[in-house]
Amino acid sequence: MKPIYSGKVREIYDISDQHLVIVTTDRISAFDSILPVLIKDKGIILNRLSNFWFEKTRTIVPNHIVSDNVADMPSFFQHDFFRERTVMVEKLNMLPFEFVVRGYLFGSMWKAYRDGEPFCGTVFPPNYKLAQKLGQPVLTPALKHDAGHDEYVSMEEIASEIGAEAAGQITQICLKLYEVCSEYARSKGLILADAKFEFGRNNQGELILADEIFTPDSSRYWDAGSYQVSSSPSSFDKQFLRDWLMNHQINGKFQFDKVPEEVLSQTQRLYYECLNRLVG
To answer: 220, 107 in Cβ contact below 8 A?
Structure first.
């Protein structure tokens, strides 16, 4: 059996008219490139976290998970490699957008603010600092592209594509998800700085939460104990690896094949700590 789609981290298999199987690998990407190394158990960590959050948020919005038990899947998946990193999901008509809720001024939004530019139609008041908490979370959507970078757009543009009612429903869901889960994360000593969501529609036209949620690959977690405004906070994701790549370029080129073992090990430890804090 071969996947119908192989992304930076996930592989998708078409198993029936109604279902897909998604396998989360140990691959890791940075700067739009898949590194020629693996982060051991990263796929298991991401899958556990995503499934934990999908279950925790079912009362807010239905999601695409059908089963996380490989015994419910074709025999091809009933092998040790696939256990704990594989889910069967409902086939959906996916919306070509991703929606990021941002509660802190950081990343792409900070760069736009620093340059005096609006971000996804939002203009912020003066005197904000790096990593400062916003007065209220904002929803910053993007149009997904198969190749290259996604394109930031405004919710008004989204509404013109999918209708004002659907756009309003998505806005309400995304902000509620962020509110509930950021409060939980804070109780575990983590700040949820931002989080990405993707949606699709099932055969009945219902809006369904899909892809992954609240993992270190789709969200930005900071250590609440060491967090300080005006500095780049300690994070539980691949930022440690990205920083090494940024600081060890040769003639402007990233050294993807020369990442030291200690950098890979520390990256794995950060993913594990995020899982252990949130799930135990």
So the answer is: yes
Helix (H) or strand (E) holding 92: none
In angstroms, the CA 86 to CA 44 distance is 8
> What residues contact residue 140 under an 8 Å CB cut-off, 6+ apart?
99, 100, 101, 102, 109, 119, 120, 122, 152
Q: What is the mean pLDDT of residues 194-199?
A: 98
Cα–Cα distance between 157 and 97 in angstroms, integer?
Answer: 11
Determine the 3-state secondary structure of 112 from DSSP.
helix
Phi, psi of 99 (to 5 degrees): -125, 120
Residue with tokens 């809006």: 207
Q: Measured between alpha carbons, how far is 191 from 174 in angstroms, rounded to an integer? A: 17
pLDDT band at 69 (very low <50, low <70, confident <90, very high): very high
128 phi and psi angles, rounded to 5 deg: -75, 155
Q: Within 13 Å and on the Cβ side, how many CA atoms surround 26?
A: 16
d(CA 137, CA 220): 14
Is-contact 73 88, C-beta < 8 A? yes
